[in-house]
Design goal:
This protein is of the alpha+beta class. It is built from six helices and 17 strands. The strands form four sheets. Strands 4-3-5-6-7-8-9-10 form an eight-stranded mixed β-sheet, sandwiched between helices. Helix 1 runs antiparallel to helix 2 and helix 5 packs parallel to helix 6.
Amino acid sequence: MDVLGLKSEVGWIGTELVRFLRENIGRAELGVEIGRGITGDTTRKIDLMAEEYLVDLFKSKGINAWVLSEERGLYEIARNPDYLVLADPLDGSLNYVLEIPFSAVSIAVYPMSELSYGRVVYGFVSNVFRDEKYEYLNGVVYLNNEEYKFSTRGKGLICIHTINPRLVEKIRKFVLDKGGVPKLRTLGAASLEVLYTAIGKMEYYINDVGRLRINDIAVGLAVAVNRGLRVILRPPLNRINPTTITVLDEVWITPGEYGP
């Protein structure tokens, strides 16, 4: 399958999953906790439903791929796959069940012949609650099928998840010293937050909570790497096995030299 064919098929899968999630907004029983995913995080009923629906869609399309997701891990749905799919079928599931309108579907597709986190051949991130679909193809970001012109409006806007209150003041001082006006946010769906940082809607993304999975940020990470932003991860990318779910201890995405 060529890249445009992949965009068409996987884009349809992502859009169909968003439709499924939108149809189920407000169903209280879907927020029930039913166990733990493979990394130990809480699994809600809607998390597993979204994952199983996504995998069934890939099977129905006959895409020659393995799918790595967050509740049950690796689905080897092809014998000799051409692609590895890193998916977060519902990023921000707590927002979703509380009907806070900031959660997303995230799908990143990598060639099995060259597994590298900067080498996404197709990426899909869509807000479940609003008409906001991002696609990444051949180094170009598209928003609702139109090429996205990278923004500079997010200067000074910082998305920060931290367990260290002193870090907040340290970052604030750094931005002030650079002539910026720091504005802090915590939004609750890393796939969108990292992508927003990569395309300039925000200037910094910083997370040292230690519960972020690589699947959450795969598309935004690829955009940031290919745009030449400063990307710091712990563990570093070259020590992460792309075919397993990796929990990141720390993530920094910044426009310059600042980092831990």
